[in-house]
Amino acid sequence: MKCGTRVIPRGRYINRVIFPVPRQRYGGFGMKALIIGASGQIGHCLYEILKGGHQVTGTFFSYPQAGLIKLDMTEREKVHKLVGALVPEVVLIPAAMPNVEACEEKPEFCYQVNVDGVGHVLDAAAQVGAKIVYFSTDYVFDGAAGPYSETDRPNPISVYGRAKYAVEQRIQRSCSPWLIIRTTVVYGPEQQGKNFVMGLIRRLKQGAVVKVPRDQVGTPTYAPNLCRVVKELVELGKEGIYNVAGPDLMNRYQFALAVAETFELDKSLIVPVSTAELGQKAPRPLNGGLKINKVQAQIKTPLAGVYEGLREMKRIM
């Protein structure tokens, strides 16, 4: 398909209209959005935040939730059928196989989901002229010299990181308008309880000793705050790559202590170790994290620091 081609379904027929896709500012109920992976941590937050002011449809794969449509994005025909029926203006893609260790152990499956599956969504979105909002990670970097800006050169060192970067490259070559959101160490209230903070709270309450790496540095990001920022960026019609993360640079052990302090849990159960001692299969970008100067200069929503995010999380839970 040539750039600027949009396929608009009309009943059983298809009309092709050739026109340049304009940048748009969305407000009120002006945005028709599709969220792929709306039952996950970021996807659920996006769904809740966007549905109050926009027309939002969400999908799930393995974690059913009321009001969401089941979709396996590796099934190309079903992806195209859904997107073609909805004709969204914006397609947000937080869906992924996010387990870094599982990706390292099963690289073919990781690519099937994180590259090929997302590719089906990209193709379907292009068919209807929808804007792409893709969620990426600081794992596209090697962790040698973080925190990283949007203009730093990616150099992923894990299967997961290489898969995410492969999609970033594909999006940047596409004809669709696009927005890539790089984020990192995302935490917050989560029904599935899979993020680092939820897992840490659960184990500390059980009285378990938790080994936490002291040499993995990042910028922890509070999920609801991330989604509020993304909403603003989309409504402003922003395009390109934006880092959206918390402002605090700290190692994972320091972050764990902040969690224990906020939730009044036993800090002595948290044991600092090196990443090498954990015996993880996937290499980590040790000096990671993301610089947020670009996004801070363009939005009104403030980025939440670690203690601010944790305190809000505690109030909600």
Short structural summary:
The protein is of the alpha/beta class. It has helices at residues 41-50, 76-86, 100-105, 107-127, 159-173, 196-205, 223-235, 252-262, 275-278, 293-296, 306-316; strands at 5-10, 13-18, 32-35, 55-60, 69-70, 90-93, 131-137, 178-183, 186-187, 210-213, 217-218, 221-222, 240-243, 250-251, 270-273.
**Biggest β-sheet, characterized?**
7 strands, parallel
Quaternary status: single chain
CATH class of the domain at 26-192 and 220-249 and 288-307: Alpha Beta
Q: Structural class of the secondary elements?
A: alpha/beta
Order of helices and strands: EEEHEEHEHHEHEEHEEEHEEHEHHH
User: What Rg, in angstroms, do the CA atoms define?
Assistant: 20 Å
Which spans have pLDDT < 50 for at least 5 consecutive residues? 7-28
> CATH H-level name of the domain at 26-192 and 220-249 and 288-307... which superfamily?
NAD(P)-binding Rossmann-like Domain
General shape: globular
Strand order of the main beta sheet, please?
5-4-3-6-7-8-13
As for the CATH topology of the domain at 26-192 and 220-249 and 288-307, it is: Rossmann fold
Named CATH architecture of the domain at 26-192 and 220-249 and 288-307: 3-Layer(aba) Sandwich
**Average pLDDT for all residues:** 92
* Helical stretch tally: 11
Number of DSSP-assigned strands:
15
- Give the N-terminus to C-terminus distance in angstroms: 47 Å
- Per DSSP, what share of the residues sits in E-state strands of 2 or more residues? 15-25%
Percent helix, as a range, is: 25-40%
